[in-house]
């Protein structure tokens, strides 16, 4: 069994030197526990913040959402071969308590990795942001940032299924922009390196947008405030443009437009909306089966690549949700 430990606190962008691969000495199985072999690991932007002082302890295995298979169990609730969700990521094996894992019963025909992307926290974040925070109405236009990433590509596709009007995305390369408009059904997209976000958004939506799903913060948030119509809404999901900075960002300089345009800006955390999971699956599984929505994923194979996958995700190496495959599905 192997695990990745964080060995130093990154300043700015983390590097491979902040991590070490170590042999993991697993605790012996006691009643109520089970040995799990990991199959898929999720690497996520929030992990960058957890690497700063006051969060994750140095020299211990890192955490994160994962899917594993039970090898051996000393609890009647779990049997060898069962698939489970748990939080012992960044390692090949884990000893888990039966009461801290969630059994995973895959819908027939749906690939297992989907439970870390569209049918997992990523898809749930998109769905909650659209239906509970933006409360998107049919025909309304939507702008989403980091649109080619896990959450962003789910937002665009789910918004289409909810009957959205014009859907506009921003992403970090020309190839990603093409992916959005040619594969994922976005009406327009732009590379945010090509100019100020406000200008690029105005070109894509001269009449303004009704709603904005923010994954990026900073200049993107300011640009969206500029581009929103009166009574527009913002679902603030994340601020990936700021996770590597040691100083908090200056607020968007145009924040006061929230007042005179009567905008509504609301942040949210997916972990406060776990009750929506059943609704998400009822809604998405038929669309996944019919191909009206695709689980957009970059799956990196091999536990030895988990650190590179995480660092690559921060740099935009991923198209869709970044997932690491460490075992046989
Ligand atoms: P993504 O799959 O979107 O991966 C991160 C992407 O961010 C990269 O692919 C990169 O794409 C983009 N990016 C990196 N740096 C910048 C930058 N400076 N400016 C603009 N884009 C940048 O990750 P997730 O889908 O997992 O997460 C997306 C966002 O949602 C994050 O902010 C995350 O924290 C947030 N989130 C919030 C949750 C909540 O409960 N509120 C739950 C889950 C996620 P590119 O090539 O386009 O730059």
Looking at this protein, list some descriptive labels:
globular, single chain, Quinone Oxidoreductase, Chain A, domain 1, Rossmann fold, ADH-like_C, binds NADPH dihydro-nicotinamide-adenine-dinucleotide phosphate, six-stranded parallel sheet, 9 helices, 2 domains, seven-stranded mixed sheet, alpha/beta, ER
Sheet-strand content, in percent, reads 15-25%
Low-pLDDT stretches are none
The CATH superfamily of the largest domain turns out to be NAD(P)-binding Rossmann-like Domain
Quick one: CATH class of the largest domain? Alpha Beta
- What's the architecture of the largest domain, going by CATH? 3-Layer(aba) Sandwich
Q: State the helical fraction.
A: 25-40%
Any idea what the radius of gyration is? 20 Å
Number of DSSP strands? 15
Q: Would you list the SSEs in sequence order as H and E?
A: EEEHEEEEHEHEHEHEHEHEHEHE
Number of domains: 2
The assigned structural class equals alpha/beta
- End-to-end separation in angstroms reads 18 Å
Overall mean pLDDT stands at 96
Assign the CATH topology of the largest domain: Rossmann fold
Taking the sheet with the most strands, its summary is:
7 strands, mixed
Ligands (ions, cofactors included): NADPH dihydro-nicotinamide-adenine-dinucleotide phosphate
**Overall geometric form:** globular
